[in-house]
Amino acid sequence: VRFVVNTLNGSTRNRTANPGDGWFIDDIRFTFHNPRIFALPFSDPASNTDNWVTEGLWGLDVEKFRGSGGGPASLGFNPYFGYFIDCPSSCGPTEAGNLLDGIPDGTEPSYNATEMVTEVVLDINHNFGSSRRPAGSTTRMRDSYVGRWLRDITIQEGDFTFITRSDDGVRVKIDAPIGPADGALPGEWNIYEDWTNHAPTTAEATVHLPAGNWQLVVEWFENSGGATIIMSVGKNNFSFSDSPKVVLAPGADVPVVPYSNSSMILDGVLDLTVAGLVDPRIVYYEYRDHDDEDGRFEVSANGGFSWTQSGLDPDSTTDSPNAGSGQWLPSNGPWLEQVHTFRDYVGTFLVIRFRQDAVGEPASDVDDGWWVTDILVTQ
Predict the structure, then answer these.
(1) Cβ neighbour number for residue 237 with a 10 Å cutoff
(2) Amino acid 183: pLDDT
């Protein structure tokens, strides 16, 4: 096991003139892990990432979905009423929680902070980085501040997937307009909570909500460094992407991370040891918007120690496991069906992954990425 800092593919400016502060690692643990064993047929319609280990930005994209029933969930016509409040001093999890806990649910903050600014928005979509700040604020609100958004929603009963991208902490809950949503969901932060200092992190939570009128509450804090808070609510039909668009907004395309090499890896193994298997195959559907980067489908028969594309496309009934450069988007036609054979791996426990390879590619040479959905492995 090793930890490698790789700056071999960055520009000279990134390597020498503008280096970062390095890499800090703590609390290393090695634990025994019995992998999940997936019997055939295995299918994943991209409604969540429960079956996968996601590296980098890999996650669910709300914009591109196959079939019907996808896209943003209908929450009614009311906007989010948002408030940014400057913390009096530091703004870690405890300080931010104490500040926000002092504001009664369902009410506009009247906290005597050094600074507070408000917003009315249709989507929570802020990527402030390390230098920008909420509109209307002064230079104070660059670090150490919190955000709170309230939205009165009207929904039909069903499953709703909440997707957040946050730096630092975020927590989300649903309340009745005049108090806790008795009978809806248990717990204080009953949809999602990661109230910690952390780097930009994408997370999701799928919950079943009853029909009715509710209030959606989102809270977030920025301690120091970069600041991001983005949230969307979907209908449980998405696609997987290496650089997903978390909210639908004009001009909000999320490009492939330059110089990156990240994967979505099956969190378990496909059981190809069953008697009678002859030609098991994987079928999935893709869109792509690539410049010089490349999407690669790969397999491992030894638990992920080595990966290969060998034998996946031996004849005219199968497709190349490389998504390649160029575009295939909804404007070009329907989702592309991709088929690969696992006949060479019968008798093994197989791991699969989708890898976006942008090694050596600067921002000028990458586009919007790769989308995959409706994965099926069967005989």
Answers:
(1) 21
(2) 47
